[in-house]
Amino acid sequence: MELNTYKNFLDNLTGDEIKDQWRALNPEAITQSKSSEEEEDGDEDEPEEEKAELYFSHPSQLMAVFSELEEQNLSLIQNSQETQVTLEDLRQNRQVVEKNM
User: Fold this and answer.
1) What angle separates helix 16-25 from helix 27-38, to the nearest 10 degrees?
2) Looking at 28-32, 35-39, 52-56, which range is the least confident one?
3) Which terminus of the chain, N or C, has fewer Cβ atoms within 10 Å?
4) Are residues 48 and 63 in the same domain?
5) CB neighbours of 52 closer than 8 A, spacing ≥ 6?
6) Do 41 and 1 share a structural domain?
7) Closest-CA residue to 36 (of 24, 26, 46, 27)
8) CA 100 to CA 78: how far, in whole Å?
9) pTM for the full predicted model
């Protein structure tokens, strides 16, 4: 189901800190979640959206996670570029040394 794909994406994106905060604010949702897991799959009439746990209560929370990931990616890209420059310098130095031998 497409909704499950999005839910899995958000679950993987959600940090443990946000999940803990959400659980602290919504203790009744945890018991509902556990009881629905224990039930048989006979209640297919209930929409999937009602069963889903929402970890992000405001769009700014999701944007903060995306911003943090973006910063991490930019840092990794910059480090990779610096490593490539260093590697190219080493290759050039090696060629010069081999020529001089």
Assistant:
1) 100
2) 35-39
3) C
4) no
5) 3, 7
6) yes
7) 46
8) 33
9) 0.48
